[in-house]
User: Which sequence fits this backbone?
């Protein structure tokens, strides 16, 4: 059942789900800024971005994409790698933080869903199901190694400097490349692969 179908068939569950879904992308960005701050970059903190206040984070188009397609984005948290001693490690850890936050969200949702008693509300079960699926989708989407997605920055952290520089030069065009590949369905196998890896990992942890 898609999110819009859920709105029609079960408005209460949709309304209960709206806030956790929005905070899924907010906490994704917040995690980037928090890890950067721990590593010595106070940029996000100084700009007031280390907050749960949605007005500081939400992007209208990214939020709409979340509810229409199941993945979206918030306003990127500013990070200055020049303030981090080990830039390469900083790039890897800061970029991974948002994905890890979504994975933790998904893990907790699946865990609670498994612990749910048969007598529990169907709306609660749907809420946890959609929360898990959306966070798995967000993590899978962000793992795609195309700039400006997190996967590309993680990859840059492992690539030789020259190769990382060439990949970074794609960033101004990355959004259009991603939209085009999504339209053609070329990214579907990549997203499905990452979803399979994530769901398998969660399954192993909850075995």
Assistant:
């Amino acid at each position: 059942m898609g999110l819009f179908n859920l709105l029609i068939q079960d408005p209460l569950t949709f309304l209960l789900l709206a806030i956790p879904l929005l905070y899924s992308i907010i906490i994704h960005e917040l995690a980037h800024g928090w890890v950067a701050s721990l590593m010595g970059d106070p940029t996000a903190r100084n700009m007031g971005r280390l907050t749960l206040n949605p007005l500081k984070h939400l992007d209208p188009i990214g939020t709409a994409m979340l509810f229409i397609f199941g993945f979206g984005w918030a306003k990127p948290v500013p990070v200055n790698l020049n303030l981090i001693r080990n830039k390469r490690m900083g790039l890897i850890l800061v970029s991974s933080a948002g994905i890890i936050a979504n994975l933790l969200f998904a893990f907790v949702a699946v865990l609670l869903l498994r612990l749910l008693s048969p007598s529990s509300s169907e709306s609660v079960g749907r809420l946890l199901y959609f929360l898990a699926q959306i966070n798995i989708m967000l993590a899978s989407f962000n793992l795609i190694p195309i700039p400006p997605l997190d996967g590309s920055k993680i990859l840059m952290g492992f690539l030789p400097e020259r190769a990382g520089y060439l990949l970074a030069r794609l960033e101004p065009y990355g959004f259009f490349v991603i939209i085009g590949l999504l339209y053609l369905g070329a990214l579907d196998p990549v997203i499905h692969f990452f979803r399979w890896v994530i769901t398998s990992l969660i399954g192993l942890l909850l075995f």
User: Anything to note?
Assistant: The chain has a mean pLDDT of 88. Residues 87-115 form the longest helix (29 residues).
